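Task: sequence design from structure.
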């Protein structure tokens, strides 16, 4: 029950008087004498009804109870709890015991309960944030064809005569497709303003976000005007962070142009940059960022053909990760056709059956969406998609190291295979099968920088990042995994010693 501030209206006084009658039957130590005296001061003819408010089950539970002798139907229908914003005025709150009993007789309602006296003022705001965005697979090679309006359509509906658009474009993509992108919009009478950003891992810094924000301010991007982000994962991350910050959120469209971005960065809602801390003089991977969904995502796999062999293998680092933790079907496709897909760059060829390359991409995206969707904000920190993302973070941050993200993920992934083997989760036969698949995809499986010190520091960082526990995913079979939180330094050293027994392909370090 809630005793609200006394107002000089007869209906409220009647309600308060009836509450007093109910409260007076409680053990006297639970109510201050001053409160009881206040109730006693009310005249008997005001004691006709019992009024209560009912809060949601997540807050204080209250109920509206009316007496048949004095409240009209219009009085009994009063309620201010229709919204999800819970408002408690300053006053006395009687918190009801969940085991309370309500007994009804012909003329009155008697409630038997235990109450606790508290004083409160505040609001509980409960909102449901709608998240909806489309991931659209475009017919191969048609995204920049003026006869296909999907790219233009993704930038939203604008007033007639509004003939400009804004885009951030990866430097490498601009070199290859810059003129074609401009020609596409010119065909529709649209002037495209583009800011060009480098897309290397070393460029993933707050300064890049500032540069993009400066360009958006200069362009005077409108609050509901979607802009385009065309490029690899680094540029998409920078664009997502800028979109989240500019005017506290503007829509943006992802157009991934690398294999890695198509199956990874384009699918989820995370974005961020690496951060160099002035106090520690260390750089932390993805330390600053946000959860912010694109308005849509357009996938054209023809962009992959412009990548070199190493970049395509780099993309397979994330695809193989998904296969190891979720899909034997995907793993078998990589075992059988992975090497040829790397060689042919996902272009149609006689060496790979028709549809296999598209099936690999479709499965990867489907698995990512299935894993991310129910846990979009990562309230659950035991995530199988974190496989390969425990030791790789520090490995990528080693000063001067020449290692790409997917390569680091794969090195981490194979090291975790050895940890699984040492725990008896998988056999050596499974370890060797995984190793052969990694080799066929031209992925590195070790690094001279993967030391005992770095590996154990990675476990310490994992505890910080994953809120007090390691939560390191390990495979229990190809296509299945479990998270563990008790890896020891001795276990790491045993795995590092076992790592030396394999004939590795190393990264470009």
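Answer:
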């Amino acid at each position: 029950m809630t005793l609200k501030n006394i107002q000089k209206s007869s209906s409220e006084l009647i309600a308060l008087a009836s509450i007093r009658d109910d409260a007076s039957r409680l053990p006297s130590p639970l109510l201050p004498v001053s409160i009881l005296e206040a109730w006693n001061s009310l005249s008997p003819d005001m004691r006709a009804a019992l009024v209560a408010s009912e809060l949601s089950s997540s807050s204080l539970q209250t109920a509206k109870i009316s007496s048949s002798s004095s409240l009209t139907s219009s009085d009994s229908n009063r309620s201010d709890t229709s919204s999800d914003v819970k408002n408690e005025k300053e006053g006395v709150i009687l918190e009801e015991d969940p085991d309370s009993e309500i007994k009804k007789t012909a003329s009155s309602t008697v409630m038997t309960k235990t109450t606790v006296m508290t004083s409160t003022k505040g609001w509980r705001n409960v909102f449901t944030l709608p998240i909806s965005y489309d991931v659209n697979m475009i017919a191969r090679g048609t995204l920049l064809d003026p006869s296909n309006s999907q790219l233009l359509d993704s930038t939203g509906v604008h007033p007639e005569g509004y003939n400009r658009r804004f885009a951030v474009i990866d430097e490498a993509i601009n070199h290859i497709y810059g003129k074609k992108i401009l020609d596409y919009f010119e065909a529709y009478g649209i002037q495209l303003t583009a800011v060009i950003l480098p897309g290397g891992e070393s460029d993933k810094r707050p300064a890049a976000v500032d540069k993009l924000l400066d360009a958006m301010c200069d362009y005077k991007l409108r609050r509901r005007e979607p802009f385009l982000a065309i490029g690899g994962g680094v540029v998409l991350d920078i664009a997502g962070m800028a979109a989240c910050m500019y005017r506290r959120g503007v829509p943006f469209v992802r157009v991934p142009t690398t294999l890695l971005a198509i199956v990874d960065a384009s699918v989820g809602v995370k974005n961020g940059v690496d951060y160099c801390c002035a106090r520690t003089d260390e750089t932390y991977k993805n330390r600053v960022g946000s959860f912010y969904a694109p308005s849509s995502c357009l996938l054209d796999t023809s962009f992959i053909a412009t990548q070199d062999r190493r970049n395509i293998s780099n993309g397979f680092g994330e695809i193989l990760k998904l296969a190891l933790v979720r899909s034997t079907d995907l793993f078998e496709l990589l075992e059988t056709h992975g090497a040829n897909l790397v060689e042919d760059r996902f272009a149609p060829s006689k060496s790979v059956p028709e549809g296999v390359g598209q099936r690999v991409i479709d499965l990867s995206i489907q698995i990512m969406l299935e894993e991310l969707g129910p846990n979009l904000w990562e309230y659950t920190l035991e995530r199988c998609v974190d496989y390969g993302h425990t030791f790789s973070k520090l490995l990528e941050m080693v000063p001067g190291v020449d290692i790409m993200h997917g390569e680091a993920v794969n090195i981490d992934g194979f090291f975790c295979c050895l940890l699984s083997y040492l725990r008896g989760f998988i056999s050596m036969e499974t370890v060797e099968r995984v190793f052969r698949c990694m080799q066929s995809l031209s992925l590195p499986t070790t690094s001279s920088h993967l030391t005992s010190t770095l590996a154990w520091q990675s476990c310490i960082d994992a505890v910080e990042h994953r809120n007090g526990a390691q939560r390191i995913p390990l495979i229990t079979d190809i296509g299945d995994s479990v998270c563990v939180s008790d890896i020891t330094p001795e276990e790491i050293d045993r795995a590092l010693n076992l790592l030396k027994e394999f004939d590795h392909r190393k990264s470009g370090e």
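The mean pLDDT is 84.
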